[in-house]
């Protein structure tokens, strides 16, 4: 039986950050944020919500496929301790009951109306109630797929690269939405993230001859152990799109599109770098995942660009043993933006934070001269399993000479091995980066903190373009 419970949560203080550039897609008098999410993998427990900024209330609606009770709660950690929990149900005689109690969300379902331990019918999931639910009307748009079908290597961490070609367009198109494609439970369980890179070759190399055979065969290879005849070395500099665990669609504002191809008869080849997470070293598993790009020939006002602000992913990023609230920062310096941004600056409209299992909080700070402006973005409840491309309700203008700093807070105080955690590609190692969508597109792709020498003990610049 399916039944629905309506819950109202009074929010003591709902605030938002004042910024400079207004999102043309959000009405200024709009006070409602809404969305919905299945909380369990079987899609038996559906949570819907409306946030009213005017009333300072959040309205929840839970629909569950069960003949017993429904449990719902707001938890600071994902557990029951310290959580606000609401329980409701319908007795066999048709009368309703509920608990008196009125952000990781936790949930539970009982097989009967007896309030006993819920067994395996429970879980937790992070949700940002202030994000608009991602919805895209594909009518009137075309699409193409860049999807790889690969056997996951039987090792803890693999970065697997495949080559793809977009359709041969006779004129520039604008991609208006990227849809992640993860086919089946294996893809969802083992795909940590993937990144789409544009492949660019020198004028004296024929791209069709170089990449074509690998596109036709579907052959893939370890990204950083490639033999000379697997040419992804031409495909590592220009990131186009990224998806991380828990993420959804990336939908561009109505005045922005990503150009494909950016040069006719060139740059038609792309590489997908997929991070497979396989801590049990399982073998023989075939993973099918990738990207569906929705596009139009009706060009929009601006070309979109992607910028990664980060700290170098290497042992230079070191978290001491048993650390709690340990902060690492990566800086895109004022010198970089002064040299690389256009005269009128750029407009940031969407962000994604990315770190690994030790990440707890993330923040993107914004400086102009000697002043710190409002934070571009902040997530004080960062969850490795909930990494969303976040549309900004109010856009942020980044001017020449501004500095952007990504700040990552880590906690390894509960690790039992008393070891350091260093920067690296594995989910058991760490990263610290913010991925920004902006317009107009520039040639600046990565801007962050890195060392100048292979020797960790050498001096390095912590404010350098990369």
Task: Give me a quick take on this structure.
The chain is mainly beta.
Tell me what the CATH architecture of the largest domain is: Sandwich
Distance between the termini: 57 Å
The multimeric state of the shown protein is single chain
Mean pLDDT across all amino acids = 82
Q: Can you tell me the overall shape?
A: globular
Structural classification: mainly beta
The CATH class of the largest domain, by name, is Mainly Beta
The percent range for strand residues is over 45%
Enumerate the strands of the largest sheet in spatial order, edge to edge or round the barrel. 2-29-25-32-22-33-34
The CATH superfamily label of the largest domain reads Copper type II, ascorbate-dependent monooxygenase, N-terminal domain
- Secondary structure: number of strands: 34
Percent helix: under 10%
Query: Could you tell me the radius of gyration in angstroms?
Result: 23 Å
Could you please say which CATH topology of the largest domain applies here? Jelly Rolls
What number of domains?
A: 3
User: Helix segment count?
Assistant: 3
């Amino acid at each position: 039986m399916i039944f629905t419970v309506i819950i109202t949560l009074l929010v003591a203080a709902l605030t938002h950050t004042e910024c400079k550039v207004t999102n043309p897609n959000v009405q200024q008098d709009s006070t409602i944020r809404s969305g919905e999410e299945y909380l369990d993998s079987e899609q038996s427990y559906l949570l819907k919500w409306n946030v009213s900024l005017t009333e300072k209330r959040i309205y929840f609606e839970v629909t569950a496929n069960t003949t017993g009770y429904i449990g719902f709660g707001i938890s600071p950690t994902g557990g029951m301790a310290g959580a606000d929990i609401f329980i409701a149900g319908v007795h066999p005689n048709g009368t309703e009951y509920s608990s008196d109690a009125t952000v990781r969300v936790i949930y539970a379902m009982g097989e009967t109306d007896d309030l006993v331990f819920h067994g395996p019918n429970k879980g937790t999931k992070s949700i940002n109630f202030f994000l608009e639910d991602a919805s895209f009307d594909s009518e009137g748009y075309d699409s193409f797929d860049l999807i790889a079908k690969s056997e996951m290597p039987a090792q803890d961490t693999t970065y697997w690269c495949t080559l793809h070609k977009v359709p041969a367009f006779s004129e520039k198109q604008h991609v208006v939405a990227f849809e992640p494609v993860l086919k089946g439970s294996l893809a969802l369980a083992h795909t940590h993230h993937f990144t789409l890179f544009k492949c660019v070759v020198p004028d004296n190399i024929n791209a069709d001859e170089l990449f074509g055979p690998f596109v036709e065969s579907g052959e893939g290879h370890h990204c950083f152990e490639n033999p000379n005849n697997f040419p992804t070395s031409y495909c590592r500099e220009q990131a186009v799109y990224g998806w991380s665990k828990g993420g959804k669609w990336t939908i561009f504002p109505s005045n922005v599109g990503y150009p494909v191809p950016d040069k006719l008869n060139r740059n038609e080849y792309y590489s997908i770098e997929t991070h497979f997470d396989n801590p049990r070293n399982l073998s023989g598993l075939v993973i099918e995942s990738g990207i569906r790009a929705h596009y139009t020939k009706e060009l929009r006002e601006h070309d979109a660009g992607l910028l990664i602000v980060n700290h170098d992913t290497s042992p230079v990023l070191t978290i001491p043993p048993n650390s709690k609230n340990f902060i690492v920062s990566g800086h895109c310096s004022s010198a970089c933006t002064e040299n690389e941004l256009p005269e009128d600056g750029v407009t940031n409209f969407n962000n994604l934070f990315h770190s690994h299992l030790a990440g707890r909080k993330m923040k993107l700070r914004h400086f102009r001269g000697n002043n710190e402006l409002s934070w571009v973005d902040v997530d004080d409840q960062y969850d490795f399993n909930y990494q969303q491309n976040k549309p900004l309700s109010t856009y942020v203008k980044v001017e020449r000479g501004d500095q952007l700093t990504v700040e990552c807070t880590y906690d390894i105080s509960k690790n039992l091995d008393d070891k350091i955690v260093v920067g690296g590609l594995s989910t058991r190692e760490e990263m610290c980066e913010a991925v920004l969508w902006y317009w107009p597109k520039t040639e600046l792709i990565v801007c962050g903190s890195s060392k100048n020498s292979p020797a960790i003990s050498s001096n390095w610049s912590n404010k350098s373009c990369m």
